[in-house]
Amino acid sequence: MIGYVACLEFQSTGVQGIVAAAAERDLVTVVLTAEPENPRLQRQIDDLPMELRTWIRVQRCIYNDITSIMAVVKRLQEDAPVFGLFSPEDDSVEVASEIAATLGLPTSPTKSYNFCRNKERLRGACQAIGLSSLRYGAVTDIRSLKDVAEVIGYPLISKPSRGSGSESINAIWNKEQLVEVAPSLLAGCARYGGTLLLEQYLLGPLFSAECVTFNGCTSIIGITDRRLSNVPDFNEVNETYPFDLSPEIGSQVAALVAGVHQVAGFSHGPSHLEFILTKDGPELVELNPRLGGALIGHAMSYVHRCNMFDLYISSAIGTVPQVIPESRGFVSQTALFAPRAGRIAAVRNLNLLPSLRGFVRYESVRKIGDEVGTVRDASGWIGHVLCHGETCCLATRYADAAENLVVVEME
Description:
The chain is built from 12 helices and 19 strands. By secondary structure, it is α+β, with helices and mostly antiparallel strands. Among the domains are: 3-107, 3-Layer(aba) Sandwich (Rossmann fold), CATH 3.40.50.20; 135-200, Dna Ligase, domain 1 (2-Layer Sandwich); 329-411, Aldehyde oxidase/xanthine dehydrogenase, a/b hammerhead (Aldehyde Oxidoreductase, domain 3), CATH 3.90.1170. Helix 4 (93-102) packs antiparallel against helix 5 (110-117) and helix 7 packs across helix 8 (175-190). The longest helix has 18 residues, at 247-264. The model has no long low-confidence stretch (mean pLDDT 92).
């Protein structure tokens, strides 16, 4: 070991990929978290191959508290150099960037992460240079809510100006519905620490560009097709990668990606830009300064035959990102949802998944006995199935077959 790379919080997937990428550079990954006992983190650590288990440590700190985190980092530095500090979690990227900058470690500017996290700021900056024509407005009370809605027109979308995972996103079809749900919309938004954003309802399919940026130059690695549940919810139920776009649309997406990253000031690291393909062309939904969520990082690693989580490590320590090989085949991931809110009683037929053609892996998000508060967003995830196919359509169909097979029972 020559030193450490610190990872702030880890509530998602990809522990093995990050630890392996750091270990190849003789770096120990130290997860700084307020919840060392988090079941999803512990499950991934327990699943690590024996040869990687000595390459990870977990240190407790106060959640997103700079003083607490700096104290832990200083203790690490007394033992060995800390070469990088980053976060794969939306709610911690700004804090991680601020701490990295203070320590003189490589990072995109903290304000770039703020742009990514603040949908209102990013939307406004994009509109100022003609990258977006979407009608939108931020509101803080009932009166402004009604006024902005009249300007935008119906239908429209309400969402927190900060947040991810399709949480608290609502379709508003008319004035009567807006008046009925307005108090709950404003109250629900407050817990994200931002204002409520109203946006024109974009009609069209959802996609994302999976990207990497180095020294301010952004490249698209591939495009993901993202299938949503029926309205009024916006659950992402299936993602298939890579997805081919026509040359004309591909050029439009490339221009959007380059422009949005430049506006945000994002200088290096993995990112994930979501867009709706409308009749007038691609329109920005959001930019996330990380790999795509759920199993997207695993899916990309599988078809490109490389460790995509290495992009976190290379950006954290300031080295040139790996050359990404051409993709081989296609992958599709399907989210398994609880049928309703309540306590999980059983998840049937998981043992049959390996017998399916194209099956790659299943990752559990929740276990038997866990409570599910809502099934209207990512809070209702039970797990994810990843399948590989000879064509884009076959990969999707294999994932659909896996979803049809698994039965989630509630108490």
